[in-house]
Write a structure and sequence with these properties.
Helix content is about 45%, strand content about 25%. It is of the alpha/beta class and about 350 residues long. The chain has a six-stranded mixed beta sheet, with helices on both faces. A five-stranded antiparallel beta sheet has the order 2-1-4-5-6. Helix 5 (about 130-140) runs parallel beside helix 11 (about 265-290) and helix 6 crosses helix 7.
């Protein structure tokens, strides 16, 4: 579904703001620290129930307020829904068409989105957790039942770790259930990546003009079955009180121009490589869902030369997403057609065009 409208109250530096969103292209411009990224963060929070900047609830609530509220309308032509998020010390409350029993997963289904934000390099240079989240985001949208499988795995992992801290009590029974749950997650990730690989490779050539490849690492030795890996690591697991083998240790190895990407590429190349991952995932999920996604671009020009920015925006436009981008100035030339333009200053938002 596309985002039609957004209302923000007491989020970060924004006391109150309303946004009527164009179904195609939108540009929010303003000086540094004016509130541009906060607006994108609010939109992403409405679709995910969490901050893409990893901020705590306390840091998201505007100073002097007790809570923040986000409300929006989303639709795909066949259906329109009202979605809302309230967060305070009492915790997260999600509302969908007035139903407050929903959770973040239901938000993600109604407003699937991806974000290219200033720290997007972490997808390449950072630890494997971000790349696992990337794999799981695609799997969540393209594989029915994956969320239940992932939740089961996380529950069993927690129980196995508790058994390890209890000197291995009942470890054998947890090992069997852990292996069953792990192999379901691993199988979905493998199939999902196999179906995404050609899109990843093609997008990589489009953005980087070089060969890009990807290798899935399952989270335990490739020469061992998972039961054998658990037995081999049992002494270490007991010493650490945590399971060292399994899909929670998996990763996605990125190879750029036949070399391991995270060790060699520049900041600009890291950004383009991360964008390769995000745009390819967006394309795959859009194809599966048969509807456009929302793509948030926070200052896409940062750290990119004009040619690289041109290639990035060409790839973005080619996806047919609903796009909301930010920039320092009213750079409408980023888009092939005139976007809806908004100016933000000191947390106050105003439509310009």
């Amino acid at each position: 579904m596309s985002l039609h409208t957004l209302k923000i109250k007491d989020f970060r530096c924004i006391e109150s703001a309303e946004l009527a969103v164009d179904p195609n292209f939108n540009l929010i411009f303003g000086a540094n620290a004016s509130g541009k990224t906060s607006i994108l963060e609010a939109i992403a929070y409405l679709g995910r129930g969490k901050s893409f900047r990893g901020a705590s609830t306390r840091n998201l609530i505007r100073h002097g307020s007790d809570e923040f509220l986000l409300n929006g309308k989303v639709g795909d032509g066949a259906r329109e829904a009202s979605i809302g998020v309230r967060n305070s010390r009492a915790g997260l409350e999600v509302s969908i068409d007035g139903d407050r029993s929903a959770g973040a997963a239901e938000l993600a289904e109604l407003l699937p989105l991806q974000v290219v934000e200033p720290d997007v390099h972490g997808l390449i240079s950072g630890g494997p957790e971000l790349r696992r989240r990337y794999l799981d985001w695609i799997a969540f949208h393209v594989e029915p039942g994956y969320l239940d499988a992932w939740r089961r795995f996380r529950r069993v992992l927690k129980q196995r770790n508790a058994a390890l801290r209890d000197c291995g009590s009942e470890l054998g029974s947890w090992d069997r259930e852990f292996c069953d749950a792990s192999l379901v997650v691993d199988d979905v990730r493998r199939r999902m990546l196999a179906g995404t690989l050609l899109t990843l490779q093609g997008t990589g050539v489009e953005l980087l003009e070089a060969e890009v490849d990807f290798e899935y690492q399952q989270g335990w030795g490739s020469d061992l079955s998972l039961p054998d890996a658990l037995r081999a690591a049992e002494e270490r697991d007991l010493a650490m009180g945590a399971t060292q083998a399994g899909p929670h240790r998996g990763d996605l190895k990125l190879i750029y121009d036949q070399r391991q990407a995270r060790k060699l590429v520049s900041r600009g190349q890291q950004k383009l490589l991360a964008c390769t991952l995000i745009l390819a995932a967006t394309e795959v999920v859009q194809t599966e869902l048969e509807k456009p996604l929302l793509l948030l671009l926070d200052d896409p020009a940062a750290e990119l030369d004009p040619d690289s920015l041109g290639r990035l925006m060409l790839a973005v436009i080619g996806l047919g997403c609903q796009v909301i981008a930010t920039s320092l100035g009213p750079d409408t030339g980023l888009f092939p057609d005139p976007p809806a333009v908004f100016h933000v200053e000191h947390g106050k938002l105003q439509k310009v065009v």
